[in-house]
Amino acid sequence: MSVVFINVLLRHPPSTRRFGACCVPVAQEEVVEVEVAPEAEAQVEAEPEVEPEPEPEPEPEEVHEEEDAYEEEDDEGDQDEEKPKFKPAAPKIPDGEKVDFDDIQKKRQNKDLYELQSLIDAHFESRKKEEEELLGLKDRIEKRRAERAEQQRIRSEKDKERQARREAERQKREEADVHRKMEEDAKKKNVLSSMGSGYSSHLQKIEGKRGKKQTEREKKKKIMAERCKPLEVDDDFSDADLGDKAKELWEWLHDLETIKYDHCERLKRQRYEVISLRNRIDELQKQ
Hints:
Blueprint: E1 3-8, E2 30-35, H1 38-46, H2 60-82, H3 101-194, H4 197-227, H5 239-286
Antiparallel strand pairs: 1-2
Helix pairs in contact: 3-4
Pfam family, one: Troponin
Organism: Champsocephalus gunnari (Mackerel icefish)
Keywords: Acetylation, Muscle protein, Phosphoprotein
C-alpha cells in the first residue's frame, strides 16, 4: 500500500482580528492523507507520469500588506480608544415628554372656559344677593311707611282729643268768667243803688278807666292761660302715664316749633318780596 501525500496549501480569507495581545494566524497548511488501493497503484504506475502543473504559490506580499493594514487599523482603533473625541449629539425627547400642541390648546380652552364659567357664576350670585337685599330694603320701606302712617293716625287722633279738651276747658272758663262778671256787676249795682247818685257817677268814671286796662290784662291772661296750661299730673300716675304725658308734651312742642318755623319762613319770604318790590319801584322812578 502506498500512501500519496498531497500537501494542499489552503489559504483562508483574512478575517482575523486582534483581541488584546492574541493574534489569530491568517493562513494555515493542512495535510490530507489519502489511501490508494493496490490496483489503483498499479494503474498509476503503468500510466506515464504526468508532471503536475505547478500550483500557484500564494502571494506573501499581499498577505503581509493585508496584515499591515489590519495592524494599522487596530493601532488607530487603540488610539481612538485611548483618546476619545467629544461628539455633541442632539438631545432626544423621551416618548412620555413629547409636546402635543392640540392637547395644550385644548387644556387652555378648558381653562378659559372654566374661568369664564366661574365669572358668570360669581356675577349671578352677586346679582341674586343684590336682588335679595333690594327686596329686603323694599320690605323695610313698606313696613316703615305703614308704621309712620299708624303713628300719624294715632297722633292726629290725640291732637283731635287734645283740641276738643282745650275747647271744652276754654268754654268752661269763659262761662265761669261771664258768671263771675255778672255776679260782680250785680253786686256793684246793689252798692251803687244804696249810695248816692254823685258817688255813683264818680265810680262809673273810675270803672270806665280801669275797664280798658283790665280788658287788656284779661286778654293777655286769657292768651297765657290757653298757651300755658297746667300739667294735670296727679300723684297716682304710673310710669306709663308719665311716659304718655311726656310724649304728648313733646308732640305739642314739636307742633309749636313747626308753626314757628312756618311763620319765620313766611316772614322771610314777605320781607324778600317787599325789598324786591321796593327796588323795582326805585328803578321805575329813576327811569
